Amino acid sequence: MNKRWLYRSRWTFIIVLAVCIPAGHTQGNSGQLHSSSDGQQQRSSTVLGKYDPPIKVSFVRETGEDIQRMIDQLPDETLTNNRWTRLYEQELGIQIHYDWIATGDVYHQKMGVSLAAGRFPDVVKVNPYQLRQLSNAGLIEDLTEVYRTHASPLTKKILEAEGRGAFDAATIDGNLMAIPESSSSIETAQYLWIRTDWLERLGLQPPETMEDVLHISKAFTAQDPNGNGIQDTYGLALTSYLWDPVMGATGFMAGYGAYPNIWIKDENGDLTYGGIQPEVRTVLEVLQRLYLEGQIDPDFSYKNGNKAYRLVQDGQIGMLYGEQWAPFMLQTTRDTDPHAQWQAYPIVAESNRALLVPLRSNTGQYFAVKKGFAYPEIVVKLMNMHLDKNWGEEAEYETYYNDDSRAVWMLSPVTPFPGTKNMDAYRQIRDARETGDFSSLENEALAIHKRIVAYESEGLKSGWGWKQTYGPTGAFSIADTYDQNGQLLNDEFTGGITDTMIDRQTILRDLQLEAYMNIILGSPIEEFDQFVQNWRKLGGDEITSEVNAWFKMNTAMNHQPSPLSRANR
Questions:
Q1: Does residue 524 surpass a pLDDT of 50?
Q2: E strand or H helix at 56, and its extent?
Q3: Residues contacting residue 500 through CB under 8 Å, at least 6 positions apart
Q4: Which residue in 456, 351, 460 sits closest to 405, CA to CA?
Q5: Which is more confident, 265 or 12?
Q6: Which of 200, 339, 340 is nearest to 329 (CA)?
Q7: 91: three-class secondary structure by DSSP
Q8: Backbone CA torsion sign across 241, 246, 249, 251
Q9: Which pLDDT tens digit goes with each residue over 273-294?
Q10: pLDDT of res. 462
Q11: Which of 528, 526, 501 is nearest to 513 (CA)?
């Protein structure tokens, strides 16, 4: 009762607050990358090569348990002195310096304070909201010409592989104000990971519909699949953040035609926000029933991913939805129980519904350069080097990207990568497996293949995760099928941040998550209807209008040559 009262009170307070904020109080509209009018001259060849004497560039850095665990395994390497920092200094004359390093929430709090005060490093990684605010305040450099004249052909090919979307988001008033750190939409595809040893123990078959998923979840909860004589198992894993890439609800919701975090086309061909559609209402009722029946951990709403995973590790979870990297997390369950077997399956839809797999636009981080910094091209030069060392013609992948299953790429302050690299590696390995000729494999595909072989022939523990991801029945075999069947549903809006989003998006997202969570925990389903009404009042209608204005303009521009393609000439 108290939780519901707090929920309604917060709605009332934020509605009053938000309607008092003018939606367009900031300036700047996304434009397109364009030629500079003054024809800036290129810098000298000395600047294009190695800086001599070396120059220092400052960053700030987020760290975490995963990075620290890796560093503990690497002799003579730290975040501030490692193979990447040494490479950048030796090859480019660039000395990496961190003003400060912090973890998790502390990092984000310090970053917020630093940006608000205008005290940030020479190069700073920001999200689209922070980028727009820094640009509107005139605190960062225009990188339009920097990108055109300093980005290598490989860098341009990789950063622009998914089209203009990432650059649209970084382009303000026609100027490129940051360099997107490339990512990939296909990496966000969801799979259903199931304890197959439990399926076999209970005589169940893999699911073909959502009805099958619900049947399996109920059996995993009630029929003692771990065989310990105690009813201590749950059919489905969830975390307190429903959109976590592993143990989130995105894949489950897609089975009911609900896509709560992307923009989709309505029956008129206009864009509408997936989070307010009636299909979401339906799936929230289903999740509420699972929760009230004990098929979901009763304390999931208080557990982040690390805490929720302890149930998985302890053999109490039978199914979870997650991205392709999930088996590297699931690996530790086999340390606890050597008989534990997980397998990826395609997500499924309810009977008589076509399956669509939602993909979110996955470039959310951008590198901006502080106004007045004398060498704004540094961020592009670092990206050039990072991509060349990992995917160039003379790449050293097992030295600079993945060293014996250690993700050493994380030691670099910039980490762009080819968006389709994982799918490409899978397809290369698949084709070689079909012909029996692995001699053509190189770099990433070769490294992955060697780990799978080591697992199959020598029992290399870390190879299990690689096989579950890249093997014949691994996650990417399913992604390949999604693609071939035309089942991938892309986010229709890739235009970055609209004016109203700057003021309202965080509020809307927080209240969306809170409304969903309260319903799952037992609040009346009518609270979804109230959420939709308030979403519109809080700025959702204005955002929808802005998104559709962008959509119409972008559709028209797609029939014209891309400024990005002109930049590569």
A1: yes
A2: strand 55-63
A3: 23, 24, 539, 542, 543, 546
A4: 460
A5: 265
A6: 340
A7: helix
A8: positive
A9: 999 999 999 999 999 999 999 9
A10: 82
A11: 528
